[in-house]
Design brief:
The chain is built from five helices and no strands. It is an all-alpha fold. The protein has one domain. Helix 4 runs antiparallel to helix 5.
Length: 81
């Protein structure tokens, strides 16, 4: 199995892209938050700029590394469609 390394810049671009699928934005937030405390802080900043409240809460959960909240947020985002 091959795994591609996605750079932090690309993940930040996905996270902040208003036209990017919400699930992908959340995945980018989880990946960034796992990299370092600095990235975690940047995810929190990015979350504050998100207007859609359910997505903002999901991204904040990723920054807080709250697995239960991330799972709940994913369910909420999925039912919204």
């Amino acid at each position: 199995m091959r795994v591609a390394d996605v750079g932090s810049e690309e993940l930040r671009s996905l996270l902040t892209g208003a036209q990017v699928d919400p699930d992908l934005r959340l995945a980018a937030a989880v990946a960034l938050s796992a990299r370092s405390p600095d990235e975690q802080a940047q995810v929190r900043v990015a979350a504050k700029a998100i207007g859609e409240s359910k997505l903002r809460i999901a991204i904040e959960s990723a920054a807080d590394d709250d697995v239960d909240a991330i799972t709940k947020a994913l369910d909420t985002l999925s039912t919204k469609r």
